[in-house]
Amino acid sequence: MAQRIAVLVEHLEGQPTDVTFELLGLARRIANTNGAPVEALLFGQGVRHLAETIPADRVVLVEDPRLRYLTPEATAVTLAALLRADPPRLALIPNTSLGMDVAAWVAAALDWPLIAYCEGLEARDGQLVATAQLFGGKILADVRIDDRPTVISALAGAFAADAMQPEPPGTIERRDPPSELAALHTRSVVLERPEAADVDITRAEKIVAVGRGIESKDNLELAEQLAQALGAVLAASRPLVDAGWLPRSRQVGKSGLKVKPKLYFALGISGAPEHLEGMKDAELIIAVNKDPKAPIFSVADYGVVADLFEVAEALLERLEG
Amino acid sequence: MTIVVVMEQVPDVVEELAIAPSGTDLDRDAVSYVVNEYDDHALEEALLLAEATGDEVVAVGIDTTGELDQALYTALAKGARRAIKLTGDFEGTWLSTRAAARLLVPVIQELEPRLVLTGVQAPDDLDGQLAPTLAALLGWPHASVVIGSQLVDGAVQVRKELWGGMTMTLELELPAVLGVQAARQAPRYVPISRVRQVMREASIETRDVETPGDLAPAIMRLRFPEEAGQAEILTGSASEIADRIIELLRARGLL
Questions:
Q1: Which of B144, B169, B178, B246 has the most A C-beta neighbours within 10 Å, making it the best mutation to test the interface with A?
Q2: A80 lies in which domain range?
Q3: Does the pLDDT value for residue B184 go beyond 90?
Q4: What percent of chain A has pLDDT over 70?
Q5: For chain A, is the Cβ count within 10 Å smaller at the N or the C terminus?
Q6: What confidence tier does B217 reach under pLDDT thresholds 50, 70, 90?
Q7: DSSP classification of residue A93
Q8: Confidence at residue A167, expressed as pLDDT on a 0 to 100 scale
Q9: Same domain (yes/no): A177, A205
Q10: Do residues A10 and A29 make contact, with C-beta atoms less than 8 angstroms apart?
Q11: pLDDT for A258-308, tens place per residue?
Protein backbone atom coordinates (compact mmCIF):
# COMPACT_ATOMS: atom_id res chain seq x y z
CA MET A 1 0.00 0.00 0.00
CA ALA A 2 1.27 3.36 -0.93
CA GLN A 3 1.26 6.28 1.48
CA ARG A 4 -0.35 8.59 -1.04
CA ILE A 5 -3.60 10.39 -0.29
CA ALA A 6 -6.21 10.15 -3.01
CA VAL A 7 -8.97 12.76 -3.38
CA LEU A 8 -12.06 12.38 -5.54
CA VAL A 9 -12.61 15.58 -7.53
CA GLU A 10 -16.27 16.52 -7.37
CA HIS A 11 -17.40 18.77 -10.17
CA LEU A 12 -20.65 19.94 -11.60
CA GLU A 13 -21.30 21.85 -14.81
CA GLY A 14 -17.62 22.28 -15.55
CA GLN A 15 -16.56 23.51 -12.11
CA PRO A 16 -14.86 21.64 -9.28
CA THR A 17 -16.89 22.23 -6.10
CA ASP A 18 -15.47 24.12 -3.12
CA VAL A 19 -15.28 20.98 -1.02
CA THR A 20 -12.89 19.46 -3.54
CA PHE A 21 -10.33 22.15 -2.76
CA GLU A 22 -10.98 21.72 0.97
CA LEU A 23 -10.19 18.02 0.69
CA LEU A 24 -7.12 18.72 -1.40
CA GLY A 25 -5.99 21.15 1.32
CA LEU A 26 -6.57 18.49 3.96
CA ALA A 27 -4.73 15.90 1.89
CA ARG A 28 -1.80 18.28 1.53
CA ARG A 29 -1.57 18.89 5.27
CA ILE A 30 -1.63 15.13 6.01
CA ALA A 31 0.84 14.45 3.20
CA ASN A 32 3.22 17.09 4.55
CA THR A 33 3.64 15.09 7.74
CA ASN A 34 5.14 12.15 5.87
CA GLY A 35 6.06 13.43 2.44
CA ALA A 36 3.39 11.39 0.70
CA PRO A 37 2.05 12.55 -2.66
CA VAL A 38 -1.46 13.94 -3.12
CA GLU A 39 -3.35 12.38 -5.98
CA ALA A 40 -6.53 13.87 -7.41
CA LEU A 41 -8.95 11.53 -9.19
CA LEU A 42 -10.80 13.38 -11.91
CA PHE A 43 -13.58 11.61 -13.79
CA GLY A 44 -15.76 13.09 -16.49
CA GLN A 45 -16.08 13.81 -20.15
CA GLY A 46 -14.25 16.75 -21.68
CA VAL A 47 -12.71 17.70 -18.33
CA ARG A 48 -9.02 17.63 -19.28
CA HIS A 49 -8.84 21.41 -18.81
CA LEU A 50 -9.98 21.06 -15.18
CA ALA A 51 -6.92 18.92 -14.44
CA GLU A 52 -4.77 22.02 -14.93
CA THR A 53 -6.56 23.78 -12.06
CA ILE A 54 -6.26 21.01 -9.48
CA PRO A 55 -3.51 21.53 -6.88
CA ALA A 56 -2.20 17.98 -6.55
CA ASP A 57 1.06 16.16 -7.20
CA ARG A 58 -0.69 13.99 -9.71
CA VAL A 59 -4.08 14.14 -11.38
CA VAL A 60 -5.42 10.82 -12.57
CA LEU A 61 -7.84 11.50 -15.37
CA VAL A 62 -10.50 9.09 -16.59
CA GLU A 63 -12.68 10.39 -19.40
CA ASP A 64 -15.67 8.58 -20.77
CA PRO A 65 -19.13 9.62 -21.99
CA ARG A 66 -20.66 7.48 -19.24
CA LEU A 67 -18.87 9.69 -16.70
CA ARG A 68 -20.29 12.88 -18.12
CA TYR A 69 -22.31 13.21 -14.93
CA LEU A 70 -20.87 11.88 -11.72
CA THR A 71 -23.75 9.45 -11.33
CA PRO A 72 -23.65 7.12 -8.34
CA GLU A 73 -22.97 3.91 -10.21
CA ALA A 74 -20.52 5.12 -12.87
CA THR A 75 -18.46 7.11 -10.37
CA ALA A 76 -18.42 4.33 -7.80
CA VAL A 77 -17.33 1.55 -10.16
CA THR A 78 -14.62 3.74 -11.69
CA LEU A 79 -13.30 4.81 -8.31
CA ALA A 80 -13.39 1.27 -6.92
CA ALA A 81 -11.48 -0.07 -9.94
CA LEU A 82 -8.71 2.53 -9.54
CA LEU A 83 -8.41 2.11 -5.78
CA ARG A 84 -8.43 -1.68 -6.02
CA ALA A 85 -5.63 -1.67 -8.58
CA ASP A 86 -3.41 0.57 -6.48
CA PRO A 87 -4.64 1.17 -2.92
CA PRO A 88 -3.73 4.55 -1.37
CA ARG A 89 -3.30 5.21 2.35
CA LEU A 90 -6.51 7.26 2.39
CA ALA A 91 -9.22 8.01 -0.14
CA LEU A 92 -10.96 11.31 0.63
CA ILE A 93 -14.48 11.76 -0.72
CA PRO A 94 -16.81 14.67 0.06
CA ASN A 95 -19.84 13.82 2.17
CA THR A 96 -22.08 15.57 -0.33
CA SER A 97 -25.05 14.31 -2.29
CA LEU A 98 -22.72 12.99 -5.00
CA GLY A 99 -20.04 11.78 -2.59
CA MET A 100 -22.43 9.98 -0.29
CA ASP A 101 -23.41 7.68 -3.12
CA VAL A 102 -19.83 6.80 -3.76
CA ALA A 103 -17.96 6.57 -0.44
CA ALA A 104 -20.04 3.89 1.26
CA TRP A 105 -20.42 1.92 -1.97
CA VAL A 106 -16.70 1.87 -2.69
CA ALA A 107 -15.74 1.05 0.90
CA ALA A 108 -18.22 -1.83 1.03
CA ALA A 109 -17.23 -3.13 -2.41
CA LEU A 110 -13.52 -3.12 -1.47
CA ASP A 111 -14.20 -4.18 2.12
CA TRP A 112 -12.19 -1.24 3.40
CA PRO A 113 -13.03 0.72 6.53
CA LEU A 114 -14.97 3.95 6.08
CA ILE A 115 -15.27 6.91 8.40
CA ALA A 116 -18.16 9.15 7.42
CA TYR A 117 -19.13 12.69 8.50
CA CYS A 118 -15.44 13.43 9.08
CA GLU A 119 -14.78 16.96 10.35
CA GLY A 120 -11.23 16.46 11.64
CA LEU A 121 -8.24 14.40 10.56
CA GLU A 122 -4.77 14.58 11.98
CA ALA A 123 -1.65 12.61 12.69
CA ARG A 124 -1.11 12.10 16.42
CA ASP A 125 2.10 10.32 17.42
CA GLY A 126 2.35 8.83 13.98
CA GLN A 127 -1.24 7.59 14.15
CA LEU A 128 -3.99 8.98 11.97
CA VAL A 129 -7.07 9.95 13.95
CA ALA A 130 -10.33 11.03 12.35
CA THR A 131 -13.10 12.92 14.09
CA ALA A 132 -16.65 12.31 12.94
CA GLN A 133 -19.82 14.28 13.71
CA LEU A 134 -22.61 12.05 14.91
CA PHE A 135 -26.07 12.28 16.43
CA GLY A 136 -27.09 15.45 14.68
CA GLY A 137 -23.77 17.13 15.52
CA LYS A 138 -24.24 16.66 19.27
CA ILE A 139 -21.45 14.10 19.66
CA LEU A 140 -18.00 13.80 18.15
CA ALA A 141 -16.31 10.43 17.71
CA ASP A 142 -12.54 10.10 17.55
CA VAL A 143 -11.66 7.08 15.47
CA ARG A 144 -8.18 5.65 15.07
CA ILE A 145 -7.39 4.78 11.47
CA ASP A 146 -5.71 1.40 11.35
CA ASP A 147 -3.16 0.22 8.82
CA ARG A 148 -5.67 -0.68 6.13
CA PRO A 149 -6.42 1.67 3.25
CA THR A 150 -9.33 3.74 4.52
CA VAL A 151 -12.10 5.73 2.90
CA ILE A 152 -12.89 9.07 4.51
CA SER A 153 -16.15 10.81 3.73
CA ALA A 154 -15.52 14.40 4.79
CA LEU A 155 -17.97 17.19 5.56
CA ALA A 156 -18.05 20.22 3.33
CA GLY A 157 -16.91 23.38 5.09
CA ALA A 158 -14.97 21.51 7.77
CA PHE A 159 -11.49 21.85 6.32
CA ALA A 160 -9.58 24.82 4.98
CA ALA A 161 -8.62 24.80 1.34
CA ASP A 162 -4.88 24.83 0.73
CA ALA A 163 -3.62 28.30 1.59
CA MET A 164 -1.01 28.01 -1.13
CA GLN A 165 -1.97 29.22 -4.55
CA PRO A 166 -3.14 26.26 -6.60
CA GLU A 167 -0.22 25.22 -8.66
CA PRO A 168 -0.49 23.26 -11.84
CA PRO A 169 -0.30 19.56 -11.14
CA GLY A 170 3.01 17.82 -11.33
CA THR A 171 1.69 15.26 -13.71
CA ILE A 172 -1.55 14.41 -15.43
CA GLU A 173 -2.02 10.71 -16.02
CA ARG A 174 -4.76 9.52 -18.27
CA ARG A 175 -6.18 6.07 -17.46
CA ASP A 176 -8.48 3.87 -19.49
CA PRO A 177 -12.08 3.71 -18.31
CA PRO A 178 -12.57 0.50 -16.32
CA SER A 179 -14.35 -2.42 -17.98
CA GLU A 180 -17.11 -2.19 -15.33
CA LEU A 181 -18.44 0.92 -17.09
CA ALA A 182 -19.63 -1.33 -19.90
CA ALA A 183 -22.24 -2.92 -17.64
CA LEU A 184 -23.99 0.01 -16.01
CA HIS A 185 -27.57 -0.26 -14.81
CA THR A 186 -28.19 3.47 -14.85
CA ARG A 187 -29.99 4.68 -17.96
CA SER A 188 -30.63 8.32 -18.42
CA VAL A 189 -29.61 11.35 -16.50
CA VAL A 190 -31.08 14.84 -16.50
CA LEU A 191 -29.90 17.78 -14.44
CA GLU A 192 -32.53 20.27 -13.43
CA ARG A 193 -32.05 23.75 -12.06
CA PRO A 194 -34.46 24.89 -9.40
CA GLU A 195 -37.67 26.53 -10.47
CA ALA A 196 -37.66 30.29 -10.26
CA ALA A 197 -38.42 31.20 -6.69
CA ASP A 198 -40.56 33.99 -5.30
CA VAL A 199 -37.69 35.05 -3.05
CA ASP A 200 -33.96 34.50 -3.41
CA ILE A 201 -32.86 33.84 0.17
CA THR A 202 -29.19 33.83 -0.86
CA ARG A 203 -29.47 37.55 -1.56
CA ALA A 204 -31.44 38.48 1.54
CA GLU A 205 -29.69 40.74 4.06
CA LYS A 206 -31.81 39.49 6.92
CA ILE A 207 -33.28 36.06 7.39
CA VAL A 208 -35.67 34.70 9.98
CA ALA A 209 -35.30 30.94 9.81
CA VAL A 210 -37.61 28.47 11.46
CA GLY A 211 -37.11 24.83 12.38
CA ARG A 212 -38.95 21.98 13.95
CA GLY A 213 -39.48 24.00 17.13
CA ILE A 214 -42.20 25.95 15.34
CA GLU A 215 -44.31 22.81 15.85
CA SER A 216 -47.13 23.42 13.40
CA LYS A 217 -47.79 25.00 10.07
CA ASP A 218 -50.18 27.47 11.65
CA ASN A 219 -47.36 28.90 13.74
CA LEU A 220 -45.51 29.94 10.59
CA GLU A 221 -47.70 33.03 10.52
CA LEU A 222 -46.03 34.34 13.66
CA ALA A 223 -42.60 33.79 12.13
CA GLU A 224 -43.70 35.47 8.91
CA GLN A 225 -44.98 38.47 10.88
CA LEU A 226 -41.70 38.71 12.73
CA ALA A 227 -39.76 38.47 9.47
CA GLN A 228 -41.84 41.30 8.02
CA ALA A 229 -41.37 43.45 11.08
CA LEU A 230 -37.61 42.94 10.89
CA GLY A 231 -37.51 43.49 7.13
CA ALA A 232 -36.30 39.93 6.75
CA VAL A 233 -37.29 37.01 4.55
CA LEU A 234 -38.51 33.73 5.96
CA ALA A 235 -36.42 30.61 5.50
CA ALA A 236 -36.49 27.16 7.08
CA SER A 237 -34.54 24.08 7.94
CA ARG A 238 -35.09 20.90 5.97
CA PRO A 239 -37.83 19.16 8.03
CA LEU A 240 -40.27 22.00 7.41
CA VAL A 241 -39.62 21.93 3.70
CA ASP A 242 -39.94 18.13 3.60
CA ALA A 243 -43.28 18.53 5.35
CA GLY A 244 -44.35 20.86 2.56
CA TRP A 245 -44.83 23.87 4.84
CA LEU A 246 -42.46 26.02 2.82
CA PRO A 247 -41.09 25.66 -0.72
CA ARG A 248 -37.61 24.22 -1.35
CA SER A 249 -36.43 27.67 -2.41
CA ARG A 250 -36.60 28.62 1.29
CA GLN A 251 -34.47 25.74 2.54
CA VAL A 252 -31.14 26.58 4.16
CA GLY A 253 -28.48 23.89 4.44
CA LYS A 254 -26.44 21.28 2.71
CA SER A 255 -29.13 20.11 0.34
CA GLY A 256 -30.73 23.52 0.22
CA LEU A 257 -29.11 26.90 -0.15
CA LYS A 258 -26.03 28.42 1.41
CA VAL A 259 -26.75 31.86 2.85
CA LYS A 260 -24.55 34.61 4.26
CA PRO A 261 -26.91 37.36 5.43
CA LYS A 262 -26.11 40.17 7.84
CA LEU A 263 -28.63 38.72 10.26
CA TYR A 264 -29.68 35.10 10.67
CA PHE A 265 -32.37 34.81 13.30
CA ALA A 266 -32.95 31.12 14.00
CA LEU A 267 -36.16 30.10 15.73
CA GLY A 268 -36.50 26.54 16.95
CA ILE A 269 -33.62 25.24 14.85
CA SER A 270 -31.46 22.75 16.70
CA GLY A 271 -28.67 23.06 14.17
CA ALA A 272 -27.99 19.70 12.54
CA PRO A 273 -24.60 19.74 10.80
CA GLU A 274 -26.37 19.83 7.44
CA HIS A 275 -28.12 23.03 8.46
CA LEU A 276 -25.05 24.70 9.96
CA GLU A 277 -23.20 24.09 6.72
CA GLY A 278 -25.62 26.42 4.99
CA MET A 279 -25.64 29.38 7.40
CA LYS A 280 -22.67 29.43 9.76
CA ASP A 281 -20.98 32.22 7.79
CA ALA A 282 -23.80 34.69 8.46
CA GLU A 283 -22.48 37.91 10.01
CA LEU A 284 -24.74 37.90 13.05
CA ILE A 285 -26.50 34.78 14.25
CA ILE A 286 -29.11 34.93 16.97
CA ALA A 287 -30.69 31.62 17.93
CA VAL A 288 -33.69 30.83 20.09
CA ASN A 289 -34.07 27.23 21.21
CA LYS A 290 -35.43 25.42 24.23
CA ASP A 291 -32.51 22.99 24.38
CA PRO A 292 -29.39 24.61 25.89
CA LYS A 293 -27.28 21.94 24.20
CA ALA A 294 -28.64 22.58 20.72
CA PRO A 295 -25.68 22.68 18.31
CA ILE A 296 -27.01 25.93 16.81
CA PHE A 297 -25.56 27.69 19.89
CA SER A 298 -22.06 26.65 18.84
CA VAL A 299 -22.23 28.86 15.76
CA ALA A 300 -24.57 31.58 17.09
CA ASP A 301 -23.25 34.89 18.38
CA TYR A 302 -26.17 35.23 20.74
CA GLY A 303 -28.40 32.53 22.10
CA VAL A 304 -31.69 32.49 23.93
CA VAL A 305 -32.71 29.37 25.77
CA ALA A 306 -36.45 29.88 25.87
CA ASP A 307 -39.80 29.26 24.31
CA LEU A 308 -39.50 30.71 20.82
CA PHE A 309 -43.13 31.85 20.76
CA GLU A 310 -42.73 34.03 23.85
CA VAL A 311 -39.60 35.64 22.46
CA ALA A 312 -41.11 36.12 19.00
CA GLU A 313 -44.26 37.69 20.44
CA ALA A 314 -42.30 40.00 22.73
CA LEU A 315 -40.19 41.12 19.77
CA LEU A 316 -43.24 41.66 17.59
CA GLU A 317 -44.89 43.74 20.26
CA ARG A 318 -41.90 46.09 20.32
CA LEU A 319 -41.34 46.22 16.59
CA GLU A 320 -44.95 46.83 15.74
CA GLY A 321 -45.93 48.82 18.80
CA MET B 1 -44.01 -7.64 -6.70
CA THR B 2 -42.21 -6.57 -3.60
CA ILE B 3 -40.74 -3.36 -2.28
CA VAL B 4 -38.60 -3.69 0.83
CA VAL B 5 -38.25 -0.83 3.31
CA VAL B 6 -35.46 -1.12 5.84
CA MET B 7 -36.30 0.64 9.10
CA GLU B 8 -34.03 1.38 12.00
CA GLN B 9 -34.51 2.80 15.45
CA VAL B 10 -32.04 5.44 16.49
CA PRO B 11 -31.40 7.56 19.57
CA ASP B 12 -33.65 10.60 19.61
CA VAL B 13 -31.19 13.44 19.11
CA VAL B 14 -33.77 15.97 20.22
CA GLU B 15 -33.27 14.59 23.74
CA GLU B 16 -30.19 15.22 25.80
CA LEU B 17 -27.53 12.60 25.11
CA ALA B 18 -25.04 11.19 27.61
CA ILE B 19 -21.83 9.30 26.98
CA ALA B 20 -21.36 5.91 28.67
CA PRO B 21 -18.50 5.49 31.20
CA SER B 22 -16.67 3.37 28.60
CA GLY B 23 -16.43 6.55 26.52
CA THR B 24 -17.08 4.65 23.32
CA ASP B 25 -20.87 4.56 23.23
CA LEU B 26 -23.83 6.60 24.31
CA ASP B 27 -25.29 5.84 27.70
CA ARG B 28 -27.95 3.57 26.21
CA ASP B 29 -30.01 3.54 29.43
CA ALA B 30 -30.54 7.27 29.06
CA VAL B 31 -31.45 7.12 25.38
CA SER B 32 -34.97 7.20 24.05
CA TYR B 33 -35.37 5.59 20.66
CA VAL B 34 -37.31 6.79 17.67
CA VAL B 35 -37.64 5.54 14.12
CA ASN B 36 -34.95 7.16 11.99
CA GLU B 37 -36.87 10.07 10.46
CA TYR B 38 -35.50 9.33 6.99
CA ASP B 39 -36.71 5.73 7.27
CA ASP B 40 -40.16 7.14 7.88
CA HIS B 41 -39.83 9.01 4.60
CA ALA B 42 -38.57 5.84 2.90
CA LEU B 43 -41.67 4.00 4.11
CA GLU B 44 -43.93 6.77 2.85
CA GLU B 45 -42.26 6.78 -0.57
CA ALA B 46 -42.55 2.98 -0.75
CA LEU B 47 -46.24 3.11 0.13
CA LEU B 48 -46.86 5.75 -2.54
CA LEU B 49 -45.05 3.64 -5.13
CA ALA B 50 -46.97 0.53 -4.10
CA GLU B 51 -50.30 2.32 -4.23
CA ALA B 52 -49.62 3.16 -7.86
CA THR B 53 -48.50 -0.33 -8.88
CA GLY B 54 -50.08 -2.82 -6.49
CA ASP B 55 -46.71 -3.90 -5.14
CA GLU B 56 -46.43 -5.36 -1.68
CA VAL B 57 -44.42 -3.36 0.84
CA VAL B 58 -42.39 -5.39 3.33
CA ALA B 59 -40.87 -3.54 6.30
CA VAL B 60 -37.64 -5.10 7.55
CA GLY B 61 -35.64 -4.09 10.59
CA ILE B 62 -32.87 -5.26 12.88
CA ASP B 63 -34.00 -5.14 16.48
CA THR B 64 -31.08 -3.54 18.28
CA THR B 65 -33.27 -1.86 20.87
CA GLY B 66 -35.83 -4.44 21.92
CA GLU B 67 -38.43 -1.87 20.91
CA LEU B 68 -38.64 -2.35 17.17
CA ASP B 69 -42.09 -3.98 17.29
CA GLN B 70 -43.77 -0.63 17.78
CA ALA B 71 -42.12 0.75 14.64
CA LEU B 72 -43.01 -2.31 12.60
CA TYR B 73 -46.63 -2.40 13.77
CA THR B 74 -46.88 1.26 12.84
CA ALA B 75 -45.52 0.41 9.38
CA LEU B 76 -48.18 -2.31 9.06
CA ALA B 77 -50.87 0.10 10.18
CA LYS B 78 -49.74 2.55 7.52
CA GLY B 79 -50.04 -0.03 4.77
CA ALA B 80 -47.05 -2.36 4.77
CA ARG B 81 -48.23 -5.93 4.09
CA ARG B 82 -45.53 -7.77 6.00
CA ALA B 83 -43.02 -6.92 8.70
CA ILE B 84 -39.86 -8.87 9.41
CA LYS B 85 -37.71 -8.40 12.48
CA LEU B 86 -34.17 -9.69 12.72
CA THR B 87 -33.17 -10.61 16.25
CA GLY B 88 -29.86 -11.79 17.63
CA ASP B 89 -27.21 -11.15 20.16
CA PHE B 90 -26.90 -7.44 19.45
CA GLU B 91 -29.56 -5.81 21.58
CA GLY B 92 -28.27 -2.56 23.04
CA THR B 93 -25.19 -2.51 20.84
CA TRP B 94 -24.15 0.00 18.26
CA LEU B 95 -24.39 -1.97 15.07
CA SER B 96 -22.13 -0.66 12.32
CA THR B 97 -23.66 -0.03 8.91
CA ARG B 98 -21.52 -2.74 7.34
CA ALA B 99 -22.61 -5.30 9.95
CA ALA B 100 -26.26 -4.28 9.55
CA ALA B 101 -26.01 -4.58 5.78
CA ARG B 102 -24.50 -8.06 6.04
CA LEU B 103 -27.41 -9.16 8.24
CA LEU B 104 -29.96 -7.66 5.86
CA VAL B 105 -28.61 -8.92 2.54
CA PRO B 106 -29.76 -12.58 2.85
CA VAL B 107 -33.25 -11.50 3.88
CA ILE B 108 -33.48 -9.04 1.01
CA GLN B 109 -32.25 -11.65 -1.46
CA GLU B 110 -34.85 -14.10 -0.23
CA LEU B 111 -37.65 -11.55 -0.65
CA GLU B 112 -36.57 -10.82 -4.25
CA PRO B 113 -37.83 -7.25 -4.21
CA ARG B 114 -37.61 -4.96 -7.19
CA LEU B 115 -36.77 -2.04 -4.95
CA VAL B 116 -35.20 -1.51 -1.56
CA LEU B 117 -35.77 1.83 0.14
CA THR B 118 -34.24 3.10 3.32
CA GLY B 119 -33.39 6.44 4.89
CA VAL B 120 -30.61 8.46 3.30
CA GLN B 121 -28.64 8.49 6.55
CA ALA B 122 -28.95 7.87 10.28
CA PRO B 123 -27.62 9.78 13.29
CA ASP B 124 -25.21 6.95 14.14
CA ASP B 125 -24.00 5.64 10.77
CA LEU B 126 -20.36 6.36 11.46
CA ASP B 127 -19.17 3.90 8.84
CA GLY B 128 -21.35 5.27 6.09
CA GLN B 129 -24.90 5.16 4.88
CA LEU B 130 -26.90 1.97 4.57
CA ALA B 131 -28.34 2.39 1.06
CA PRO B 132 -25.04 2.51 -0.89
CA THR B 133 -23.58 -0.17 1.38
CA LEU B 134 -26.50 -2.49 0.64
CA ALA B 135 -26.24 -1.66 -3.06
CA ALA B 136 -22.55 -2.61 -3.13
CA LEU B 137 -23.16 -5.90 -1.34
CA LEU B 138 -26.21 -6.75 -3.47
CA GLY B 139 -24.60 -5.58 -6.70
CA TRP B 140 -27.61 -3.40 -7.55
CA PRO B 141 -27.68 0.19 -8.84
CA HIS B 142 -28.55 2.87 -6.33
CA ALA B 143 -29.09 6.53 -5.63
CA SER B 144 -29.11 8.51 -2.40
CA VAL B 145 -30.69 11.78 -1.36
CA VAL B 146 -33.82 10.74 -3.24
CA ILE B 147 -36.77 13.15 -3.07
CA GLY B 148 -39.14 11.39 -5.42
CA SER B 149 -39.44 8.21 -7.44
CA GLN B 150 -41.62 6.53 -9.99
CA LEU B 151 -41.66 3.01 -11.37
CA VAL B 152 -41.48 2.97 -15.14
CA ASP B 153 -40.97 0.12 -17.59
CA GLY B 154 -38.37 -2.09 -15.90
CA ALA B 155 -36.76 0.78 -14.10
CA VAL B 156 -37.22 3.29 -11.35
CA GLN B 157 -36.95 6.96 -12.14
CA VAL B 158 -35.58 8.86 -9.19
CA ARG B 159 -35.04 12.50 -8.40
CA LYS B 160 -31.88 13.00 -6.46
CA GLU B 161 -31.28 16.30 -4.71
CA LEU B 162 -27.84 17.82 -5.27
CA TRP B 163 -27.62 21.23 -3.65
CA GLY B 164 -29.05 24.67 -4.07
CA GLY B 165 -32.31 23.14 -5.22
CA MET B 166 -30.58 21.46 -8.14
CA THR B 167 -31.70 17.91 -8.87
CA MET B 168 -30.49 14.98 -10.93
CA THR B 169 -33.04 12.62 -12.43
CA LEU B 170 -31.75 9.09 -12.97
CA GLU B 171 -33.29 5.96 -14.34
CA LEU B 172 -32.07 2.86 -12.53
CA GLU B 173 -32.70 -0.65 -13.78
CA LEU B 174 -34.44 -2.92 -11.30
CA PRO B 175 -33.74 -4.16 -8.76
CA ALA B 176 -32.31 -1.01 -7.23
CA VAL B 177 -31.63 0.54 -3.84
CA LEU B 178 -32.74 4.06 -2.87
CA GLY B 179 -31.60 6.19 0.05
CA VAL B 180 -34.57 8.46 0.67
CA GLN B 181 -34.13 12.01 1.88
CA ALA B 182 -37.78 13.01 1.65
CA ALA B 183 -40.88 11.29 0.34
CA ARG B 184 -43.01 13.11 -2.22
CA GLN B 185 -45.39 13.94 0.59
CA ALA B 186 -45.03 14.16 4.35
CA PRO B 187 -45.14 10.74 6.03
CA ARG B 188 -48.72 9.76 6.74
CA TYR B 189 -50.14 9.83 10.21
CA VAL B 190 -51.78 6.78 11.62
CA PRO B 191 -53.89 6.94 14.78
CA ILE B 192 -52.70 4.86 17.70
CA SER B 193 -56.05 3.05 17.76
CA ARG B 194 -55.30 1.74 14.29
CA VAL B 195 -51.83 0.57 15.41
CA ARG B 196 -53.44 -1.23 18.36
CA GLN B 197 -55.88 -2.92 16.05
CA VAL B 198 -53.02 -4.08 13.83
CA MET B 199 -51.20 -5.42 16.88
CA ARG B 200 -54.18 -7.68 17.53
CA GLU B 201 -54.72 -8.76 13.94
CA ALA B 202 -51.29 -8.92 12.33
CA SER B 203 -48.03 -10.39 13.41
CA ILE B 204 -44.39 -9.62 12.92
CA GLU B 205 -42.23 -12.37 11.46
CA THR B 206 -39.11 -12.89 13.53
CA ARG B 207 -35.84 -14.26 12.19
CA ASP B 208 -33.05 -15.13 14.55
CA VAL B 209 -29.80 -14.32 12.79
CA GLU B 210 -26.17 -15.12 13.43
CA THR B 211 -24.31 -12.27 15.03
CA PRO B 212 -21.66 -10.96 12.67
CA GLY B 213 -18.11 -10.89 14.04
CA ASP B 214 -17.39 -7.21 13.74
CA LEU B 215 -20.27 -5.32 15.28
CA ALA B 216 -19.41 -1.82 16.26
CA PRO B 217 -17.31 0.89 14.66
CA ALA B 218 -13.76 1.22 16.09
CA ILE B 219 -14.26 4.27 18.26
CA MET B 220 -11.48 5.56 20.51
CA ARG B 221 -13.74 7.89 22.37
CA LEU B 222 -16.88 9.94 22.11
CA ARG B 223 -16.95 13.52 23.28
CA PHE B 224 -19.13 16.58 23.19
CA PRO B 225 -18.10 19.32 20.80
CA GLU B 226 -15.95 21.96 22.43
CA GLU B 227 -17.74 24.92 23.86
CA ALA B 228 -15.42 27.27 21.97
CA GLY B 229 -17.30 29.79 19.89
CA GLN B 230 -20.30 29.28 22.11
CA ALA B 231 -23.04 31.88 21.85
CA GLU B 232 -23.41 34.53 24.50
CA ILE B 233 -26.63 33.48 26.19
CA LEU B 234 -29.17 36.21 26.77
CA THR B 235 -31.17 35.75 29.93
CA GLY B 236 -34.15 37.37 31.55
CA SER B 237 -37.84 37.54 30.83
CA ALA B 238 -39.10 37.35 27.27
CA SER B 239 -39.56 41.11 27.18
CA GLU B 240 -36.08 41.78 28.58
CA ILE B 241 -34.63 39.46 25.97
CA ALA B 242 -36.62 41.19 23.23
CA ASP B 243 -35.25 44.55 24.37
CA ARG B 244 -31.73 43.22 24.32
CA ILE B 245 -32.14 41.75 20.80
CA ILE B 246 -33.52 45.01 19.46
CA GLU B 247 -30.61 46.86 21.07
CA LEU B 248 -28.18 44.47 19.37
CA LEU B 249 -29.83 44.91 15.99
CA ARG B 250 -29.92 48.70 16.29
CA ALA B 251 -26.25 48.80 17.30
CA ARG B 252 -25.40 47.03 14.07
CA GLY B 253 -27.65 49.12 11.90
CA LEU B 254 -29.94 46.19 11.25
CA LEU B 255 -33.03 48.03 12.38
A1: B144
A2: 5-183
A3: yes
A4: 97
A5: C
A6: low
A7: E
A8: 61
A9: no
A10: no
A11: 999 999 999 999 998 889 989 999 999 999 999 888 889 999 999 999 999
Per-residue pLDDT tens over the stretch B29-48: 999 999 999 999 999 999 99
The size of the A-B interface in CB pairs under 8 A is 276
pLDDT at B228 over 60: no
Any idea how long chain A is? Answer: 321
Q: CB distance A72–B242 less than 8 Å?
A: no
Question: Which chain A residue's Cα is nearest to B184?
Answer: A242
CA–CA distance, A269 with A276 (Å, rounded to integer): 10
Q: Look at chain A and report how many structural domains it folds into.
A: 2
pLDDT in tens, A34-89: 788 999 999 999 999 999 889 999 999 999 999 999 999 999 999 999 999 999 99
For residues B5-34, average pLDDT: 93
From residue A239, give the alpha-carbon distance in Å to each of A38, A213, A243, A308, B110: 38, 10, 6, 17, 34
Whether residue A126 sits in one domain with residue A26: yes
What pLDDT score was predicted for residue B9? Answer: 95
In terms of residues, how long is chain B?
Answer: 255
CB contact under 8 A, A190 and B168: yes
Alpha-carbon gap, residue B188 to B53, rounded angstroms: 19
Secondary-structure class of domain B2-208 per CATH = alpha beta
Find the residue in A nearest to B222 (Cα).
Answer: A141
pLDDT at position A169 over 70: no
Question: Residue A52: in which H helix or E strand, if any?
Answer: none
- Rounded to the nearest angstrom, the minimum Cα separation between A273 and chain B is 11
- Mark whether A12 and A146 lie in a shared domain: yes
Asked if A307's CB is within 8 angstroms of B141's CB, the reply is no
CATH number of the structural domain spanning residue A270: 3.40.50.1220
Q: Is A111 helix (H, G, I), strand (E, B) or coil?
A: coil
Residue A170 shares a structural domain with residue A45: yes
For residue A321, give the 3-state DSSP assignment: coil
pLDDT band, residue A242 (cuts 50/70/90) = confident
